Queue: 2 jobs
Job 1
Amino acid sequence: MKKIIGLAAAGALLLALAGCADGGGGGTEASGPKDIGDLVVGFAQVGAESGWRTANTKDIQDTFKDEGIELKFSDAQQKQENQIKAIRSYIQQQVDYIAFSPVVETGWDAVLQEAKDAGIPVVLTDRAVDSEDTSLYETFLGSDFVKEGQKAGLWVLDEYKDATKPVNIIQLEGTTGSAPAIDRAEGFADTIRQNANLKVVASQTGDFTRAGGKQVTEALLKSNPDVDLIYAHNDDMGLGAIEAVEAAGLVPGKDIKIVTIDAVHDGMQALADGKINFIVECSPLLGAQLVDVIKTLNDGGTVEKRIITDETTFTQEQAVEALPDRKY
Ligand code: GZL
Ligand code: ZN
């Protein structure tokens, strides 16, 4: 008889433990780690402006699906007010975590404070904010854009090291006020400054889109007849620039060299085809690292304030090699 009672008690204990394991325990008791399957994450994406963004969105959505974590997702069409609205709606819905890629660096302190007051941790992915108070977010997970600009600048320095006359450069800037646009311009300028022949004769935003890159290049080629190189802050604007260069009867990659950043499929194809000369990689595959951050925080752990993604660069020959295995 004793044995049976003992077994029953053990069974009851197991059931109780199982109860909270499937999140059924829930309720207002001390917030220990939630069961992964019960987490709800709100993600406020920038938009769908480029091949990079599309790959970034797909990777995040696929990763969360594979992990069985519920992801609420919004596309802000590159408007800050839409991202702020989305973050506020996630706060209302009392999600467990908020992650977003700030379309521009400024103007986030108020809504981040609201998330903090609501006890919802925020993770920055891809782009940075300029908030002085770093307690407003758990970490910034993404590339070092200054370094990306420097890598592009180093290739230009090398390409024109024997230049005896001025090298005229057009710069196609990313979204005005965005961390990548600010930092890629800074890194590039800091690097090419070593050779006085290298001159940025015109610089304008193409808003990271192919159409923007084409329109701006058409205009700048008209007002700057003798251009040697186009430095585009992303592949998509570089692909638009190729169309404009060809429309002007010139050969992209030869008459006018082109350097871009991202290394998405279409950019790598143009590089392999010789229409782009060099690409600095910026990885959009942030999904796995974002899930790791959330799991660590959910287990009561802490994460580094800054997690930098590692990435490389590609020449035309390297693009031919790499293309078959590229995931995006
Ligand atoms: C960079 C990302 C940029 C890409 C662009 O991490 O924010 O935005 O370089 C994208 O292609 O539009
Ligand atoms: Zn900055």
Job 2
Amino acid sequence: MRTGIVSAMPQELAAVLARLPDERRQQVAGRDFWAGHWHGHDVVAVLSRVGKVAAATTATTLIEHFGVDRIIFTGTAGGLGEGVRVGDLVLADAFMQHDMDASPLFPRFEVPLYGQSRFAVDAALSAALGRAARNAVAVPAETLGADAVAEFALDAPRVHEGLIVSGDRFVATSAESDALRAALPAALAVEMEGAAVAQVCHDYGIPFAALRTISDRADDAAHVDFMRFIDQVASRYSVAVLESYFSSL
Ligand code: ADE
């Protein structure tokens, strides 16, 4: 079994690489892929790059060139669902592209020629990642450090599970996030890559699971220092969840 670990942010990838005792870099498609082991399990870690096309190329290369037979994606997302707060985690049960619209030829959001708009994650892989995520949030000060919990006022972070939507834009106005909520009321969070990776994994028939830390509410509220949040919260959650996942295999 070989697992592809896709990180959305360089800080997350750096935290992942710090856990691999033997990683070796290989460049393919202009990307750095890092093959190594985590608790003895064969892994290839890589940065997704931003947006659906870049993420699809990364996922395809992981499968075609590196022969991974499962992919786990970690990163950040904007919270859309009620009660989905900064510092919470969202485990995807399915992905949609919120900017896919080939109407009137196909229903809005449907990916043409697939006959579907939703791409489900792998239930077993996602359940295992969910268990690891719940371990990571149980005692946030242990996972993140007391300073980070205080700095970002994290109050009993939760793991939500449901629909994540992806599109090629950073959603940073209330008008836009309101429109997304109206069009896709089930969406818990928005990001820019997951639906592309889900579609690639669907095409190749390999298991996929994804976990995102909520970094913002996808609105125009002045928000915490994004880069510091990635360093202090999102990267630490990602690595703790993956650590718990690989040590449980
Ligand atoms: N990733 C993190 N926050 C996001 C947002 N508001 N929109 C799109 N992608 C994101």
